[in-house]
Design goal:
Length: about 280
């Protein structure tokens, strides 16, 4: 069977794809329409429950919860795409160089990756915030830097296996250089692993952005953010508990969908698992 025929029979991939599509649809819809301006304050109508006027109710400042959730999806996707793009672009390049050159070059890149792992996204964001101030850009940079060693290590490990193959040895004997072999043989053969990792890293980036915004280091007011919505809701937990439920469910479903899709892609792109199906 072809890829899409197997994909339709893979429960994790289907469920993850649907949830991820809903996240993308919410972000796309918010570019053109939202029930209310997400930053519009309406104190007389604060802390209202779900109604025909406000489908998910309003927060402590009278802002429409549904509008904030829709626009907040934009931030999640922007952070995920750019942060994963930084890690993918720089990390894959470093991993390919380490695998192609070997020796002290590989050792230097891998030890630099180990050093970077000592500074997780949260700690990097705190350091960048102390220097440049909090904001969405600093969150993206911190998460992107954390993704670089992840992709570098995965690329280097997968590429080393490809460099040991007979067809690569034949290409080297035919006079192909490291760059040509990397572009023609290595990258096409490790692309599936990188795609799967990119999907999982996307979910991690969304979770990291929510955590940074919750701590006040990420997206700043008046731009909506699911993490900051959780932070603001904690003071109203007993008066309006749904204020914390909505953004929490949005984060959980988004991360769950991307992780399920990543697991599904891993199964579908693994030749051994594909033959079993």
């Amino acid at each position: 069977m072809g890829f899409w025929q197997r994909a339709r029979r893979h429960a994790s991939f289907v469920i993850g794809g649907v949830l991820s599509a809903l996240l993308a649809a919410a972000a796309l819809l918010s570019l053109f329409w939202a029930p209310y301006p997400p930053a519009e304050i309406d104190i007389p109508n604060k802390l209202q429950g779900p109604s025909a006027a406000h489908w998910l109710g309003t927060d402590s400042l009278g802002r429409d919860i549904g509008s904030q959730l829709l626009v907040g999806a934009q931030n999640s996707i922007v952070v995920g795409v750019i942060a994963v793009g930084i890690g993918l672009g720089v990390g894959v390049a470093l991993g390919c160089v380490a695998s192609a050159r070997r020796g002290w070059v590989e050792e230097l890149i891998m030890r630099a990756s180990d050093f970077t792992f000592a500074f997780p996204a949260l700690l990097s964001a705190i350091m960048l915030t102390a220097i440049y101030g909090p904001g969405l850009v600093m969150s993206i940079v911190a998460i992107g830097i954390f993704n670089i060693p992840v992709f570098a290590r995965i690329t280097r490990g997968a590429a080393n296996a490809v460099w040991a193959r007979d067809y690569v040895t034949a290409a080297r004997a035919a006079g192909k250089g490291p760059l040509a072999i990397t572009l023609d043989h290595v990258l096409p053969n490790i692309a599936s692993q990188l795609i799967v990792q990119a999907t999982i890293s996307f979910a991690t980036a969304i979770l990291a952005e929510a955590a940074l915004s919750y701590l006040g280091l990420g997206t700043q007011p008046p731009q909506p953010s699911w993490g900051r919505m959780l932070n603001e809701a904690q003071t109203q937990m007993f008066q309006a508990p749904l204020l914390a439920v909505y953004p929490g469910v949005a984060i959980v479903l988004s991360v769950l969908g991307l992780n399920l899709m990543g697991d599904g892609l891993r199964d579908l792109m693994d030749p051994k698992l594909a033959r079993r199906r």
